[in-house]
Amino acid sequence: MSASGVARDVLIEANEGPFTSADMLTERALRLLTTKLWETSCWPKSARGQWQVGDYRFFIIEFRPTADACLYLQFWSEPDEPVLMEVSSRDWNPGALKYIWHGERRALEERGFVAGGQAKNFQKKVEIDSPAAAELIARETLTILFEVLGYHGGCALITKMHRGRRAEERLVYDALEVDDFMRIAAGAGFTASLVEKEARFPLIRLRCRGFHGTVILGSIRPGTSQFGSALLGVVVDGHAAMSDELVFEGGVTRQWIENSLVRWMRAARRRPDGKARKSEVARSAKRPNSPVVH
């Protein structure tokens, strides 16, 4: 399965059973459930490049004793974190009330579960850091299904595996050609023109609704015409006072560059008279290479 998606399987068919003991249920389902739990919880450090911070897996094992009741255990797993194990409550699941009464609640509390979260599920954190640990939790899960939730067969026992990630995959730049930067600036609403084309570090003029700024592209990549940074300046009295820097190293999106340029312009406009501070202008004017823009 890919990094994102949902897989649904039938662990026990509806016509199987009855199971007359937790041991009988465990004998039938332990191997497959252990495999599912280890698949949910395994984030090997040797495969760190295959997962990212913010990736998660969400495993559910459930059955429906009646049409209006869904009873389940679920497991939330993220890299380098304990697994959150939960048993369904009755707060968001009215049909489950007759199956999870005072005795069942006490039985879960005796196993270390505490009601929590928005759904008031019974939850606790467990370590599933090896196949052996996955087997122990699988045994506990099957015991809870039989002894607490009353699963003895007669209806299907379903598993669902959700995979997702909070990080988004996007196209990024870690260096730009001069024309690339000018087109991105135009997308942010600026009029961009090249002032010094042959210079080692190209100078670009940016204008937008009365705002006048400059960009010096720097951090050239050896053997290329691509640049890894942009030094931003606000023009005052023909001189550009350097006020900010954009660094592309590590990869940035087009939207990030456009938003950064807009934020830079807005910050400059919030200064008195929309100009750079006099001290910045003075320091820039003293630099031998301070760009003069007409």
Condensed summary:
Helix content is 28%, strand content 32%. The protein is an alpha+beta fold and 294 residues long.
Strand and helix map with partners:
Blueprint: E1 5-12, H1 22-41, E2 55-66, E3 69-77, E4 83-87, H2 102-110, E5 114-116, E6 121-126, H3 131-148, E7 157-165, H4 178-187, E8 191-196, E9 203-208, E10 211-220, E11 227-236, E12 239-247, H5 254-269, H6 278-286
Antiparallel strand pairs: 1-7, 2-3, 2-7, 3-4, 4-6, 5-6, 8-9, 9-10, 10-11, 11-12
Count of separate DSSP helical elements: 6
Q: How much strand?
A: 25-35%
Let me know the number of strands: 12
Shape: elongated
Structural class: alpha+beta
Query: Which whole number gives the mean pLDDT?
Result: 87
**Low-pLDDT residue intervals, each spanning 5 or more residues:** 274-294
Question: Which strand order does the major sheet show?
Answer: 1-7-2-3-4-6-5
Keywords:
disordered C terminus, five-stranded antiparallel beta sheet, 294 residues, alpha+beta, single chain
Task: Note down, in words, how this protein is organized.
With 294 residues, the protein is an alpha+beta fold. The chain has two domains: 161 residues, no CATH class; 109 residues. It is built from six helices and twelve strands. The strands form two sheets. It has a seven-stranded antiparallel beta sheet, with helices on one face. Helix 1 crosses helix 3. It starts with a strand and ends in an 8-residue tail after the last helix. The relative contact order is 0.13.
